Amino acid sequence: MTEPIISATDLSRDFVVHTGRGLRRRRSVTRAVADLAFTIEAGAAVGYIGANGAGKSTTIKMLTGILVPTSGRVRTCGLDPHRHRRELARRIGVVFGQRSQLWWDLPLSESYRALAAIHRLGPQALRARRDTLVERLDLGDFLETPVRQLSLGQRIRGEIAAALLHSPDLLILDEPTIGLDVLSKERLRQFLLEERATSDTTLLLTTHDMDDVQRLTDRIIVVDHGRMAYDGTLAGLVRRVGADRVIVVDLEENAAPLDDVAGTRLLGVEADGLRQRLAFTPGSTTAAAVLAQVSARASVRDLTIEEPDIEDVVRRLYASGA
Ligand SMILES: Nc1ncnc2c1ncn2[C@@H]1O[C@H](COP(=O)(O)OP(=O)(O)OP(=O)(O)O)[C@@H](O)[C@H]1O
């Protein structure tokens, strides 16, 4: 069996915080990550989810060798991340949505040349890989513009190309779509899906965006106060916490409130009954069954399904004390 790309055993990290001065000086210890154990196999796409302060960034910093664990063990690409940071850097790509890894005053083209030297890519290998990424991420128009002049969306695409230039085995994205508009988010997701399909890169992603989770991952790990709260599929989690999906139906003609559709709760009626919103819990009924019942009462012109948002799902999981 091949070794997992990531394996964590009893992984913990404490931070010591000092407050006050002199005699009032106090020392307290925050356990940011507590006894985490998981493995991620090559080729997987995993969402690493949790509320603010749950311990996601701390975990990623340990996986990439930026931080040393207080106790426990972590291996990334078969290496001890802190001891073999340089070697690991050649095997992984990391993007922090809110922090740039590019040279601020240089254009992307020069950053890529510098990164190629760091990763010891020859000129031909650099050109081939760079050209592919420039084309697929549509970087051509601003390749020679200093990074500080780029829009957020342009910069993030530039960062992703930088992280993938050396064709890493593992791509770690920390909130990659944060602050992007809907169109830019979608383009980025499309690119990441294509990248995975063509290169088999393992993906680990932290996000607060349900669409990222749904589109890009096939497994999620949820942490709560540094501890593992869930490891499985998103659908399994939604079923477990009973988060509602919402069906919005647009009807051909005004209809009485649809308050007797089995397995649903009527959330609201708009436009004199032309638009109605019904919530249902996946597992107790299906969208198809709801639609069949609605269609028996009124003719449906259009239908959309709103998924529960990830914050809500995580809140429910925390509240259930899992
Ligand atoms: N350098 C540090 N010194 C002291 N405490 C820290 C440090 N870094 C993180 N923490 C604490 O550790 C806990 C976990 O923080 P972490 O940044 O890993 O959470 P997160 O899940 O990434 O949150 P967010 O979604 O807000 O980025 C928090 O209580 C945080 O305050």
Report on the structure:
Helix content is 33%, strand content 29%. With 322 residues, it is α/β, with parallel strands linked by helices. The protein has 3 domains: 1-91 and 169-232, Rossmann fold (3-Layer(aba) Sandwich), CATH 3.40.50; 103-167, no CATH class; 243-319, Alpha-Beta Plaits (2-Layer Sandwich). A hairpin with a 6-residue loop joins β1 and β2. The chain has a 6-stranded mixed sheet, with helices on both faces. It starts with 5 loop residues before the first strand and ends with a helix. The protein binds adenosine-5'-triphosphate (ATP). Residues 15, 17, 30, 32, 50, 52-58 line the site of adenosine-5'-triphosphate. The site of adenosine-5'-triphosphate has 12 residues, from β1, β2 and α1.
Uncertain stretches: none
CATH architecture of the largest domain: 3-Layer(aba) Sandwich
Mean pLDDT over the residues? 91
For the sheet with most strands, the description reads: 6 strands, mixed
Strand composition percent: 25-35%
Enumerate how many helices there are, as a single number: 10
Give the C-alpha Rg. Answer: 23 Å
Strand order of the largest sheet: 5-6-7-3-8-9
Bound molecules: adenosine-5'-triphosphate
Helix content: 25-40%
CATH-assigned homologous superfamily of the largest domain: P-loop containing nucleotide triphosphate hydrolases
Derived from helix and strand composition plus strand pairing, the structural class reads alpha/beta
- How does the overall form come out from the CA principal axes? globular
Domain ABC transporter: 6-250
Main location: membrane
Membrane topology: Peripheral membrane protein
GO molecular function: ATP binding
